């Protein structure tokens, strides 16, 4: 029995390793994505565009975002770890290659020189909240250089979107708009909504790499 369990475990590890290696081999093609972005530009390619679910907020800026994070986010919608119905419906139609292509496209879309200036200092109350949440440990000192490209840049992101996103980690599977992430869930649940809003407001006020680049049909 022990030998059987050992063999099964070894096979499972080998399978996971093979899948991971396959995933790592997928290289995004920004040019190919030009034929795949129609589903994205209706929201993310319009200046000031607002979503109304679960509340009114500006949709996130994705031009200039890390490619690996875009892929990670799309996979989270596809798996149901993020429960926004519209994004789930879109992600369900995408292959791994599609996601990689879209990530490559938006990482380069409207790209400018990365932010190098030190961020403005928060007031003492917000500084204490950010320290309690250990936010810089993943998102970087200026919130624009995360320690891993699968984490998002958040400096300069729309503050109303950041607030909605942070709140969504507090509800997880209890809502049609929750986000199920052990790390972010544990962090967000430490704070009141008022505290999350204060943190989002500060981070959104910083200079960042992301922007909204209007697509040609919407200019």
What would you say this structure looks like, in words?
The protein has 219 residues and is mainly alpha-helical. The protein contains eleven helices and two strands. It has a two-stranded antiparallel sheet with strand order 1-2. Strand 1 (50-51) and strand 2 form a beta hairpin. Helix 4 (67-79) crosses helix 5 and helix 9 (159-171) runs antiparallel to helix 11 (193-204). It starts with a helix and ends in a 15-residue tail after the last helix.
CATH class: Mainly Alpha
Order of strands across the main sheet: 1-2
Strand content: under 5%
Relative helix content:
40-55%
Any idea what the CATH superfamily is called?
A: Cytochrome c-like domain
User: What is the H-and-E element order?
Assistant: HHHEEHHHHHHHH
The total tally of domains equals 1
Whole-angstrom Rg: 19 Å
The N- to C-terminal Cα distance equals 66 Å
Instruction: Give the overall pLDDT as a whole number.
Output: 88
Count of helical segments? 11
Outline type: globular
Biggest beta-sheet profile: 2 strands, antiparallel
What is the annotated CATH architecture?
Answer: Orthogonal Bundle
Structural class: mainly alpha
Number of strands: 2
**Could you list the spans in which at least 5 consecutive residues all have pLDDT below 50?**
1-23
